[in-house]
Amino acid sequence: MQWGGRFAGGPSVIMQDINASIGFDRKLWRQDIRGSRAHAAMLATIGLLSAEDEDAIASGLEAIAQEIEAGRFAFDVALEDIHMNIEARLTERIGEAGKRLHTARSRNDQVATDFRLWVRDAIDGLTAQVSDVMLALAQRAAQHAGDPMPGFTHLQTAQPVTFGHHLLAYIEMLERDRGRLADCRRRLNACPLGSAALAGTSFPIDRAMTAAALGFDRPTANSLDAVSDRDFALEFLSAAAISAMHLSRLAEEIVIWCSAPYRFIRLSDAFTTGSSIMPQKRNPDAAELVRAKTGRVTGALVGLLTVMKGLPLAYAKDMQEDKEPVFDAAEAWALSLAATAGMVRDMVPDTARMRAFAGSGFATATDLADWLVRVLRLPFRSAHHVTGRLVALAEARGVDLADLTLAEMQAVEPGITDDVFSVLTVEASVASRTSYGGTAPANVAEQAARWLAVLA
Ligand code: ARG
């Protein structure tokens, strides 16, 4: 125990169990050592530590890093958390100098600093992973820029789109996810170290120096806020929850596309599992688990919001509960991104089948209505009505719109000519959607190429 001066007895076992965070916050060891080295270097610069003591601290911390890395460090639950475990070991190794490290510092600013550093590192890793999923999507989109598939609204056949266009929709979502990570990073990049317990310190510390040494843009401006703010973790979790939701939507589509009635794509053995009873099964478990991880990530966000909402300033031990949701969400998000990139690269679309379904369900009805407006100058509402009658007729006969004869069409609208058949194919339909952001293969190829260049 590092604070035992005024305590006669030790904590009860249950107190120790509920209080200790070493079981999970050991993940912060790298950040804790970085923070302590920066703090010691600053203390030496302002003359609060001798050069010899600073040397001893730096090499002691380096040795501890090696112990932890090699799995030789004995974490002690009686020492509560990672900060006290490292500090106690340092003193064990180097003696008196180790006891000087905690000058002008509290665990409150220490943990706030370590955790920001951890989240910042996580943001950098996750941003690279999001980019990799985007790259995988862009590559597949470029391959399938011109391959039609049914586009749905209400999961009912709507209008043909291209598979490439559909995949590019997810790139747009992931680009916004990257933006949210970048925003979060920008705002979190202020250094709490030197805020001490809550009020700042009487020592003449140089907060700009530690901030710069740890790669922060600036020191935080209010010590009370600095030790009790967890917005950075909440923003991170919000970004995670939104992105996990995006990945879940794609995962849901992958599950649907893999199902026997659809068979739009096939996943290889690498991303599927079998059934222990049904020999024919090939289950898209990876996609299902990506879909499910959303629950954990959203739960983490709601959990931490709930922990924080009633806390008076400044630090309260409740805030120790900030780490597990963040660690868990980061891990779930990282796994989901890796699985998604893997599935996107692995999937083999059945383009012939998608093309066949793209034309079913009267998917080119809107093209027919647009033709009536463009060529016959019908008001759109009238064209909609005429087309509805033609769809009803085709449906009654059990054929596609393009299978109606010209005479049958003219019976409904006398002005219709042979030319109408040119707009009823799937290819003509997608090719006509040339408006900016539309599904025309030329547009899609251009967008895919643009993304490939951006992501290269
Ligand atoms: N393990 C603690 C946490 O994660 C460190 C800060 C403890 N501060 C304190 N005053 N007890 O929040």
TrEMBL record:
<dbReference type="Pfam" id="PF00206">
    <property type="entry name" value="Lyase_1"/>
</dbReference>
<dbReference type="InterPro" id="IPR024083">
    <property type="entry name" value="Fumarase/histidase_N"/>
</dbReference>
<dbReference type="InterPro" id="IPR020557">
    <property type="entry name" value="Fumarate_lyase_CS"/>
</dbReference>
<dbReference type="Pfam" id="PF14698">
    <property type="entry name" value="ASL_C2"/>
</dbReference>
<comment type="similarity">
    <text>Belongs to the lyase 1 family. Argininosuccinate lyase subfamily.</text>
</comment>
<dbReference type="InterPro" id="IPR029419">
    <property type="entry name" value="Arg_succ_lyase_C"/>
</dbReference>
<keyword id="KW-0055">Arginine biosynthesis</keyword>
<dbReference type="InterPro" id="IPR022761">
    <property type="entry name" value="Fumarate_lyase_N"/>
</dbReference>
<dbReference type="InterPro" id="IPR000362">
    <property type="entry name" value="Fumarate_lyase_fam"/>
</dbReference>
<comment type="pathway">
    <text>Amino-acid biosynthesis; L-arginine biosynthesis; L-arginine from L-ornithine and carbamoyl phosphate: step 3/3.</text>
</comment>
<dbReference type="GO" id="GO:0005829">
    <property type="term" value="C:cytosol"/>
</dbReference>
<dbReference type="InterPro" id="IPR008948">
    <property type="entry name" value="L-Aspartase-like"/>
</dbReference>
<keyword id="KW-0456">Lyase</keyword>
<protein>
    <recommendedName>
        <fullName>Argininosuccinate lyase</fullName>
        <ecNumber>4.3.2.1</ecNumber>
    </recommendedName>
</protein>
<keyword id="KW-0028">Amino-acid biosynthesis</keyword>
<dbReference type="GO" id="GO:0042450">
    <property type="term" value="P:L-arginine biosynthetic process via ornithine"/>
</dbReference>
<dbReference type="GO" id="GO:0004056">
    <property type="term" value="F:argininosuccinate lyase activity"/>
</dbReference>
<feature type="domain" description="Argininosuccinate lyase C-terminal">
    <location>
        <begin position="362"/>
        <end position="431"/>
    </location>
</feature>
<keyword id="KW-0963">Cytoplasm</keyword>
<feature type="domain" description="Fumarate lyase N-terminal">
    <location>
        <begin position="5"/>
        <end position="299"/>
    </location>
</feature>
<dbReference type="InterPro" id="IPR009049">
    <property type="entry name" value="Argininosuccinate_lyase"/>
</dbReference>
